[in-house]
Design brief:
217 residues, alpha+beta, Ribosomal Protein L25, Chain P, RNA Polymerase Alpha Subunit, Chain A, domain 2, six-stranded mixed beta barrel, four-stranded mixed beta sheet, 4 helices, 13 strands
């Protein structure tokens, strides 16, 4: 897990639309802090910090901290509202967490050793079925990514979740089947040639059948 991002945070004196606009004008993002054994609180976060975290994928479902008057607290970004035109942060929901907190989160997939993959060397294509995997994990131990090794994957192979090494305590929410994460699809040229061969074989069988029927007359 990489270094945890620490966001500057202050309590908001005014709630509502007017208060949120004033916060944004002053270079902050309005937010709500909830969870734990404490009541929800209206807070504000530094805009430039939230923008950077949002653009780098380090905000939602990622462990971070807020610093209020020098005191740090662990939080997880659970939701963000963005401007529909500018795609810029407008409001954030943060959840207080501890090592005992378990959450359902989406973790990105990462595929290793593509340059060594036999199937890709033959011209195959990596067909990613799931770019993210929904898992249940400790809030303080959410993996940055789940990794699948392609060093021995050949054309036609399927990579299932059972081939992905999961960190201790991380469990997929789908447990009733060994679901597909990715496949190594055949090159388009190979698929075309196989399709033509199948068509020729089918035509040959049709002609043979017609010939037998004609002979029977």
């Amino acid at each position: 897990m990489s270094d945890v991002t620490v966001f500057d945070c202050e309590l908001r004196k005014r709630a509502g639309t007017g208060g949120s606009r004033a916060v944004r004008r002053d270079g902050w993002v309005p937010a709500v802090l909830y969870g734990g054994d404490e009541a929800p609180a209206n807070i504000k976060l530094r805009y430039n910090q939230i923008l950077k975290a949002y653009q780098t994928g380090r905000l939602i479902d990622v462990l971070s901290k807020i610093s209020v008057d020098g005191k740090e607290q662990q939080v997880i970004g659970r939701d963000i509202q963005v401007d529909p035109v500018k795609d810029l942060p407008m409001h954030v929901d943060l959840m207080r967490v501890s090592s005992k907190t378990r959450l359902t989160v989406n973790v990105p997939m990462r595929f290793l050793n593509e340059e060594q993959c036999p199937g890709l060397k033959k011209g195959g294509v990596l067909n990613v079925v799931r770019y993210e995997i929904e898992v249940v994990a400790s809030a303080t131990a959410i993996p940055e990514a789940l990794e699948a090794d392609l060093s021995e994957a050949d054309v036609g192979d399927t990579i299932h979740i059972s081939a992905v090494k999961l960190p201790d305590g991380v469990i997929p929410t789908i447990t009733d089947r060994d679901f597909t994460v990715a496949t190594i699809a055949a090159p388009s040229a190979l698929r075309s040639s196989e399709g033509e061969a199948d068509e020729e074989e089918a035509e040959g069988e049709t002609e043979a059948t017609e010939g037998e029927e004609g002979g029977a007359e």
